[in-house]
């Protein structure tokens, strides 16, 4: 079995979208939560950074054990997550790129036989390494979509505030007989 080209291409490039989504955002938009019960953009990036390590650990376990079983990843039970979260957004992005390069090297060395090795996820069932990669990418894309939405929501909020201020100034000018 071989990793599909489309999967591989997404694997080496999908994470690069984060920078595009947040490039022009002020720190407030990145660090503040839009909703108290949801992650901020920074927290989501920290999650993605940490999840790459978890994925590498799972791949190594699949390569060295017979059909290991994995629980769902839960940051609340991950002793390393808070250390990751404490880093700056820029440092996290750098780490995501660096670790993805390491992951790519690891994937590039896999033989077709190794790609057939199996691991079981308690919710998703038994998957070979190619399916694990697809699962990782789908999980990552779900979080990328969340970042995209949060960045867009901040942009919309900013536009609404500008429109409200502009509308208020126009209304005030008309009240004072200015145009």
Furnish the topology, listing elements before pairings:
Layout lengths: L4 H9 L3 H6 L4 H5 L9 H24 L4 E2 L10 H5 L3 H20 L3 H4 L2 E4 L3 E4 H47 L4
Parallel strand pairs: 1-2
Antiparallel strand pairs: 2-3
Helix pairs in contact: 4-6, 4-8
Task: Please provide a written account of the structure.
The chain is mostly helical. The chain has one domain: Four Helix Bundle (Hemerythrin (Met), subunit A). The protein is built from eight helices and three strands; from the N terminus they run ααααβαααββα. α4 packs parallel to α6 and α4 packs antiparallel against α8. About 8% of the residues have low confidence.
Neighbour order of strands in the largest sheet: 1-2-3
Q: Note poorly predicted spans.
A: 162-176
How many strand segments?
A: 3
The overall pLDDT, averaged over residues, is 90
Element order, helices and strands? HHHHEHHHEEH
Overall radius of gyration = 21 Å
- Please give the count of helices: 8
3D shape? elongated
| CATH homologous superfamily title | dinb family like domain
Helix percent reads 55-70%
CATH architecture: Up-down Bundle
CATH topology (level 3) name: Four Helix Bundle (Hemerythrin (Met), subunit A)
Structural class: mainly alpha
Task: Summarize the main sheet.
Answer: 3 strands, mixed
Classify the oligomer.
Answer: single chain
Structurally, the number of domains stands at 1
What is the end-to-end distance? 72 Å
CATH class: Mainly Alpha
How large is the share of residues in beta strands? 5-15%
């Amino acid at each position: 079995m071989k990793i599909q080209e489309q999967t591989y291409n997404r694997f080496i490039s999908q994470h690069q979208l984060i920078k595009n989504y947040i490039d022009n955002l002020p720190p407030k938009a990145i660090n503040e939560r839009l909703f108290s019960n949801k992650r901020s953009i920074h927290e989501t990036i920290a999650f993605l950074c940490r999840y790459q390590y978890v994925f590498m650990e799972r791949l190594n376990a699949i390569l060295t054990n017979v059909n290991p079983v994995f629980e769902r990843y839960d940051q609340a039970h991950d002793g390393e997550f808070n250390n990751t979260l404490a880093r700056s957004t820029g440092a996290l992005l750098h780490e995501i790129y660096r670790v993805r390069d390491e992951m790519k090297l690891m994937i590039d060395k896999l033989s077709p036989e190794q790609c057939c090795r199996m691991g079981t996820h308690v919710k998703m069932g038994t998957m070979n390494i190619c399916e694990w990669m697809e699962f990782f990418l789908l999980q990552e894309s779900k979080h990328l979509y969340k970042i995209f939405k949060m960045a867009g929501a901040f942009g919309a909020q900013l536009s609404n505030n500008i429109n409200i201020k502009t509308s208020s100034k126009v209304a005030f000018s008309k009240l004072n007989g200015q145009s």
